[in-house]
Design a protein that fits this description.
The chain is an alpha/beta fold. Helices cover 27% and strands 22% of the residues. The structure holds iron/sulfur cluster (SF4).
């Protein structure tokens, strides 16, 4: 199995349950969801004409729509090549669950890494049972996709972007009647660090005993 890799880089996980943890991010190319606030639009299209050498996706000095096909073993080997020391790996995108992640996740778990997937929940999640799955449900986006009940059922964490009360109500609708894990973490994440969104998210989290997810990497101005 070859995955279209957009970039591999090491940083601090900036949001969600693992905030503050050093992490290796593996970004896959391709996303049909169409969120208006997307800050990784360069990952949306897998253009055959933009296939680049692996060395280019390991050099993160430039944001690019270039991608390189890599196997799980090649992804793992790149961590050593780059001298990365983090033991937490985040598979992100784009929408990583466009692809069957079993081979990649099996390879990384076997090598001793803790694995997390960040997904919109609009594709079936195919990964190792030990993978931590963060679903950031994208409701009513331009791509016209729906969040799958199977994705909500697999989620260890549901991290919902909010800017206004309507977004909280959309989450309520989505979760009503959904099969969820008993220990699922539900978090609200203010969109674009807007003060009104942050105030709203804080108030709802306190009321519901949910968790607030702040995009700390945006405040720190890091990737
Ligand atoms: S799901 Fe993620 S990558 Fe895709 S459009 Fe939305 S924010 Fe962007």
């Amino acid at each position: 199995m070859l995955y279209p890799i957009n970039e591999i880089f090491q940083t601090i996980q900036g949001e969600g349950v693992f905030t503050g943890l050093p992490a290796i991010f593996v970004r896959l190319q391709g996303c049909p969801v169409g969120c208006p606030w997307c800050d990784t639009r360069h990952t949306w299209v897998v253009d055959p004409a933009r296939q680049v050498p692996i060395s280019q996706v390991l050099d993160c000095s430039n944001e690019s729509d270039g991608w390189s096909p890599m196997s799980g073993a090649q992804v793992l080997a790149s961590f050593a090549e780059l001298g990365y020391r983090a033991k937490h790996v985040v598979i992100t995108g784009g929408e990583p669950c466009l692809y069957d992640l079993n081979e990649l996740s099996e390879t990384l778990h076997q090598a001793g890494y803790q694995l997390q997937i960040e997904t919109s929940g609009t594709s079936e999640i195919l990964t190792h049972p030990a993978t931590w799955v963060t679903v950031s449900p994208k409701i009513g986006m331009a791509g016209g996709l729906t969040v799958l009940p199977s994705a909500l059922a697999r989620a260890n964490e549901i991290k919902h972007p909010v800017a206004m009360m309507r977004h909280v109500e959309e989450l309520d609708d989505l979760l009503s009647g959904a099969q969820l894990r008993e220990d699922v973490v539900i978090a609200l994440q203010p969109i674009s660090q807007k003060p009104r969104a942050t105030e709203l998210a804080m108030a709802v989290c306190i009321e519901r005993n949910w968790r607030l997810s702040i995009q700390t990497h945006k405040y720190l101005e890091i990737d």
